[in-house]
C-alpha cells in the first residue's frame, strides 16, 4: 500500500464505481475519476442528477421489498462504493432479520468492504468478490450466505450497461433469477439512449479508459423484465417510481427503473 492506496488499485485509470461515487458527492475517488466525471458532467450536466435519483430509487425499492413485499434476502450485484443508505441499512431498518450479500469486483470496493459488513444482530451482511459476467460463480458463493429455497431480491442498480450484448445481458439476469424461487423479485435501473447529450457524454466516457457503459432503448431495458410481474407503477423514470418528496420531484432523467416479481 502506497500513500494509503491498496497496491492492486490503479489510480491512473478511471473506474466506474469511483466516478459514480464522485457524482454522488463521495470522497472515495481519485483525480483521474474526478477528471472524467467532470468531463461527462460538462457535456451532460444531468448525469449527476441521474446518479442521485437512481440511488434514491434503490432506497425506495429496497424499503418496499423489505417492508411491504416481505423479502428477507437481498443479492446486490455491482454494489459500488458505500454511501448513504446502502441496501443492508435500508433493508434491516425495515426488517432487522434481513440478510444481504453484496457482489463487486472492484479492488477499492473490496478495500472498503468493512463499511458494508455491518449488520443487525438478527440479520447478516457480507461481501463477495465476483464478476457480473460469471453468474454461476456469483450464485455459488452467494449460496453460502443466502437460502435459495426462499424468495430473494436481485438488485441490479446501474450495472447492466456494462454488458454490451443484449443476449448476454438477458442471459446473466435469467441465470441469476433461475436460481431464485417463485416470489422472488428483480429490482433494476439503467440509463437510456433517449437524450442526445447523454449519448454523447457516454461516448466520451467510454473512450476515457473506464469500463464502457452502454445505454439502451426503453424497449431493450423492458426486455429484461420479460416473464416477470411488474410492481406498479411498472418501468418508469427514476423519480416516478413510488415517488417521495425530494428536491428533484419533477425532474426526469434519461433512465428507467422498475421492480418485478417472479411468478
TrEMBL record:
Q: Which domain of life is it from?
A: Bacteria
The cross-references to Pfam families, in alphabetical order and at most eight, read:
Methyltransf_19
What Enzyme Commission number(s) does the record list for this chain? 2.1.1.-
Is Metal-binding one of the keywords? no
Q: Which GO terms describe its biological process?
A: methylation
Alphabetized, the UniProt keywords read: Methyltransferase, Transferase
Extract the InterPro entries matched here.
SAM-dependent_MTases_sf, SAM_dep_MeTrfase_SAV2177_type
What's an example of a GO molecular-function annotation for this chain?
Answer: methyltransferase activity
The name this protein carries in UniProt is SAM-dependent methyltransferase
Q: Which organism does this record belong to?
A: Actinomadura chokoriensis
Amino acid at each position: 500500500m502506497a500513500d494509503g492506496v491498496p497496491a492492486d488499485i490503479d489510480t491512473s485509470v478511471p473506474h466506474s464505481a469511483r466516478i459514480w461515487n464522485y457524482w454522488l458527492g463521495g470522497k472515495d475517488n481519485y483525480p483521474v475519476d474526478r477528471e472524467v466525471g467532470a468531463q461527462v458532467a460538462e457535456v451532460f450536466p444531468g448525469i449527476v442528477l441521474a446518479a442521485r435519483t437512481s440511488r434514491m430509487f434503490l432506497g425506495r425499492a429496497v424499503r418496499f421489498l423489505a417492508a411491504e413485499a416481505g423479502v428477507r434476502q437481498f443479492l446486490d450485484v455491482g454494489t459500488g462504493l458505500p454511501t448513504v443508505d446502502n441496501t443492508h441499512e435500508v433493508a434491516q431498518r425495515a426488517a432487522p432479520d434481513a440478510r444481504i450479500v453484496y457482489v463487486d469486483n472492484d479492488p477499492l470496493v473490496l478495500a472498503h468492504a468493512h463499511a458494508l459488513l455491518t449488520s443487525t444482530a438478527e440479520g447478516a451482511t457480507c461481501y463477495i468478490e465476483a464478476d457480473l459476467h460469471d453468474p454461476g460463480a456469483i450464485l455459488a458463493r452467494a449460496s453460502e450466505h443466502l437460502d435459495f429455497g426462499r424468495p430473494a431480491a436481485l438488485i441490479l442498480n446501474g450495472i447492466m450497461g456494462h454488458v454490451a450484448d443484449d443476449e448476454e445481458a438477458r442471459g446473466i439476469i435469467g441465470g441469476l433469477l433461475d436460481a431464485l424461487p417463485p416470489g422472488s423479485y428483480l429490482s433494476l435501473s439503467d440509463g437510456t439512449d433517449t437524450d442526445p447529450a447523454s449519448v454523447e457524454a457516454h461516448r466520451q466516457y467510454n473512450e476515457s479508459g473506464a469500463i464502457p457503459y452502454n445505454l439502451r432503448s426503453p424497449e431493450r431495458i423492458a426486455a429484461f423484465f420479460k416473464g416477470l410481474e411488474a410492481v406498479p407503477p411498472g418501468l418508469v423514470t427514476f423519480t416516478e417510481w413510488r415517488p417521495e418528496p425530494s428536491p428533484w420531484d419533477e425532474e426526469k432523467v434519461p433512465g428507467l427503473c422498475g421492480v418485478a416479481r417472479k411468478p
